[in-house]
Amino acid sequence: MKALRNVLTKLLNVLAGVSFIAMVVLTCWQVFTRYVLQDPSPWSEELVSYLFAWASLLGASLITGERGHMNIPIVVERVGAGMQKTLGILGELVAFAFSAIILVYGGVQISQLALGQMTSSLGIAVGVFYVVLPLCGVLNMIYTVFFINRISGFYFAAKFDFI
């Protein structure tokens, strides 16, 4: 389980990093074409905006995987250990439900809806760029299952070293 989590985290780091580097290169290209060549590149500006959305969502999944999302622990710190465990699991279940309903279900719906719409300068279906929503939703759901497993103390992966 831990090995799979580490692989997902490394993959997310690479994807978020590559999209960030691509945004920097494309933005430099946009500046060069606009001010040096006096002929701005419309496709690069559009692609940077989509890459920004991808980098943001991949980064959010990365933070979910590190359990680095914002929380206000004032209530949790004032209750007993058993209740802290229950509240921790409840929080992960809420994150799971959000990811399942909003990101996965909603993301699939909007991706399918936008497949018929083409981007103005890239000529690619907008739905292709929305695929990141269900992808990140599934990643968030996987991470929440990892954390529920860890919080509950039910380490079912101990029997299966390959997970």
Helices and strands, in order, run as HHHHH
Strand segment tally: 0
Classify the helix fraction into a percent range. over 70%
**Class by helix and strand content?**
mainly alpha
User: Span from first to last CA?
Assistant: 5 Å
- Give unreliable regions as ranges: 157-163
Shape: elongated
Can you offer a commentary on this structure?
- With 163 residues, the chain is an all-alpha fold.
- 73% of the residues lie in helices and 0% in strands.
- The protein is built from 5 helices and no strands.
- Helix 1 (2-36) packs antiparallel against helix 2, helix 2 packs parallel to helix 5 and helix 3 runs antiparallel to helix 5.
- It starts with a helix and ends in an 11-residue tail after the last helix.
- Residues 157-163 have low confidence and may be disordered.
Helix/strand layout:
Elements: H1 2-36, H2 42-65, H3 81-114, H4 126-130, H5 132-152
Helix pairs in contact: 1-2, 2-5, 3-5
Concise synopsis of the structure shown:
The protein is mainly alpha-helical.
Summary keywords:
73% helix; 163 residues
